[in-house]
Amino acid sequence: MDWFVAQTRTKMIDNLIKNARLTSSGRKLLTSQEKAYLVEEWQSSSLSCPEFCRRHGLIASQLYKWRKDAKTGAVMGIKNEGELHSKTELEILRKENDELKKALGEATLDIKILKKKVEMDQQRNRKLSN
Question: Which of 82, 85, 95, 108 has the most neighbouring CB atoms within 10 Å?
């Protein structure tokens, strides 16, 4: 069973690398999610980094850099419906979210104040008309 799982994972990694987009200079472009997957597979395997890279046609320094980036959060932050976001991007989104919540709170308060003013004006107008 373990052999079958290992072979399946190897095929998945090979397909991922083989189907990567190419730049005009022939370099393979991998998404952050694909890099994260490769780092996770390497770390869960019993292979050394150079051996893992030889088997899959990668460069060891790339894999080490992706692992370092993952640890510092430069490439991977949180998983959100399958997408990976950087921690800096996450912080920007959180800050924007806080600002929007504040603006919504202020707008809601303005609406309550205006409704109260309209209600008071209507009561005053009724008293004047009687």
Answer: 85
Both tokens of 78, joined, read 């949180």
pLDDT score for 18: 79
Closest CA to 20 of 9, 8, 32: 32
Instruction: Using DSSP, state whether 80 is helix, strand or coil.
Output: strand
Q: Which helix (H) or strand (E) holds 85?
A: strand 83-85
Question: 16-60 pLDDT, tens per residue?
Answer: 787 777 778 777 777 777 888 888 889 888 889 999 989 888 889
8-11 CB contacts, 8 Å cutoff, 24+ apart: 9/41, 9/45, 10/55, 10/56
Amino acid, res. 52: F
Q: State the pLDDT confidence band at 74, using cuts at 50, 70 and 90.
A: low
**pTM score of the predicted model:** 0.49
